[in-house]
Automatic annotation (TrEMBL):
Disulfide bond is among the record's keywords: yes
Organism: Halosolutus amylolyticus
A Pfam entry, by short name: Thioredoxin
Entry keyword set: Disulfide bond, Electron transport, Redox-active center, Transport
Name the record gives this protein: Thioredoxin
């Protein structure tokens, strides 16, 4: 990946999910990485817990960055993306939101979705 004027999060490990700490943090991650899958989740959400190992696996297997947003800690951020239920998955490619899905999706469907936007 080419380096650019943004400093800071480009040294993020891409083989594990990144926990987002607010809107500016998410904006920086999206701006600095080609493909980002954002998992809006809640600790009390059963389906979110089922999705967690899938997200961790995709972080290891794909070039995409997996970002996790706790909707209870980031209510305004979740609202800005129209999150009405958890889990909600938002996919960004080249800085633009390209897909959004509510509910648990199988790993192979998520992998295919991500690979449709990666250049490798």
């Amino acid at each position: 990946m080419a380096t650019d004027a943004h400093s800071g999060s480009s040294d993020l490990p891409t083989d594990e999910p990144v926990h987002v700490e607010g809107a500016d943090h998410l904006d920086g991650i999206v701006a600095e990485h080609d493909v980002v899958l954002v998992d809006f989740y809640a600790d009390w959400c059963g389906p979110c817990k089922m999705l967690e190992p899938v997200i961790e696996g995709l972080a290891e297997e794909t070039e995409a960055v997996m970002a996790k947003v706790d909707v209870d800690a980031n209510q305004q951020l979740a609202g800005a993306y129209g999150v009405r239920g958890v889990p909600t998955l938002v996919l960004f490619a080249d800085g633009e939101q390209v897909e959004q899905h509510t509910g648990v999706l199988p790993a192979d469907r998520l992998r295919n979705m991500i690979e449709g936007y990666t250049n490798e």
